[in-house]
Amino acid sequence: MVAPVSHGEKPFETRPPKTTIRSINVRAVVVPLRRPVIAGIGRFDTWPLVLVDVETTGGIVGQAYVAPYRERAVPAVVAAIRDLSATMIGEPVAPVRMFEDAFRKLNVVGTAGISAIATSALDMALWDALGKEAGMPLAELLGGTVGAVRSYNSNGLWRHEVSTIAGEARDLADEGGFTAMKLRLGNEHVRDDLAAISAVRDGVGYDIDLMVDFNQALGLGDAIRRCHELDDQGLYWFEEPIAYDNVRGYAQLAGKVRTPLQMGENYYGGRDLLTFLQAGGVHYAMGDLMRIGGVTGWLRTAAIAGAAGVQFSNHLYPEIAAHLMRVTPSAHWLEWVDWAVPILADPLSPTDGHVSATRRPGIGMAWDERAVARYAIDI
Q1: CA distance 196 to 184
Q2: Whole-number Cα distances in Å, 120 to 126, 206, 283, 297, 374
Q3: Closest CA to 127 of 147, 97, 148, 161
Q4: What percent of the chain has pLDDT above 90?
Q5: Neighbours of 271 (CB within 10 A)
Q6: Rounded to an integer, what distance in angstroms lies between the CA atom of residue 53 and that of residue 23?
Q7: E-state strands within 143-295
């Protein structure tokens, strides 16, 4: 056999070394909410955000945030992110490898809860860095396209005085041309839930999709009764009527209602979704990027939902979800909230009830550093 002529070329090109992680910076802010969050989980007038900046040896900075609900939880979340970050300096910008390594390292202390939150925060920042390095929006980096995603407005309609609900529903519809929104229920008496639903209809009519979220406010028996009492209200879904981890309860409830059940914001990865699917306890599913495992965890969980034919939505984090919904096999609804807007330099803006990610490389977020300094807290 005659060897091929190389013409002076090496048989294999030597690729430049992959950029590595130079530093990771973690900060925290507490931003004001335009409307207070009032539900069975408590009342929140402000919202804590933990900001992560991953700087590479190529000078790129990948950015992401997580929102751990309670300001008092911030120090623990920051400590977990910093602890995990210390093992990543000098390593390649490879989010899937980091994801696997993180869960191996954290297995001894548990991979849910704060361990998952820390992993998710770093995973999202690494994917942002990877997209910036490639010069591609995250959706395109993942093989999809940037484009409009059907969305519902979740910026209000909490459990407050019913006399204000009709006007608030009109405001939510007008903010971005929305024809879908979410109302929180789970009041002590069904008459109060019915009054809230009626107020929304008075404000925006019946030609909107109205999702309702109980925020785990009910016990199983009360949930069966309440959902039966609300089953003829034309609601789009019942979200988390009972405790999120009551697998058997959701399986029982799923067989007793006509309105589809929605849950998943508290799933810690695809295995949780699989457990509920196997039990027959879920009709619609959603993922929260802080808990599900960031971008890597989302892709794995969305694949399970797609294989099962279960429509998959996001919970919060619309800036990133606007990319991921474009590569999700059974993509359903994007939940729109503006809670991170106070510290973003160029936030997304809904149009005609849809949200589209920016075409900037990576996730496309940028911090407004003056606002970050204004809302910063010591950690």
Answers
A1: 9
A2: 10, 38, 25, 8, 26
A3: 97
A4: 93
A5: 11
A6: 8
A7: 148-153, 180-184, 209-213, 238-239, 261-263, 284-288
Extract the tokens encoding 214: 């109980």
In this structure, are strands 180-184 and 209-213 parallel, antiparallel, or unpaired?
parallel
Tens digit of each residue's pLDDT (9 = 90 or more) over 80-109: 999 999 999 999 999 999 999 999 999 999
Scan for tokens 């039990």, then name that residue: 279
DSSP state at residue 88: T
As given in the structure block, the two tokens for residue 76 are 């623990």
What was the pLDDT predicted at 11?
Answer: 47
Lookup: tokens for 364: 């496309």
Alpha-carbon distance of 34 to 168, in angstroms, equals 12
- Confirm if 304 and 270 have CB atoms less than 8 A apart: yes
- Compute the average pLDDT of residues 112-124: 97
**Within the chain, what is the greatest distance between any pair of CA atoms?**
88
pLDDT at residue 7 tops 60? no
Average pLDDT over residues 115-119: 98
DSSP letter at 288?
A: E
Single out the residue of 220, 267, 211 nearest to residue 239, CA to CA: 211
Residue 79 burial (CB count, 10 A): 14
Query: Distance between CA 250 and CA 261 in Å, rounded?
Result: 8
Q: CA 175, CA 164: separation in Å to the nearest integer?
A: 17
Round to whole Å and give the CA distance between 245 and 291.
14
Task: Report whether 132 contacts 362 (CB < 8 A).
Answer: yes
Query: In terms of DSSP bridges, do strands 238-239 and 261-263 run parallel, antiparallel, or are they unpaired?
Result: parallel
What is the C-alpha to C-alpha distance for residues 29 and 67, in angstroms, rounded to an integer? 10
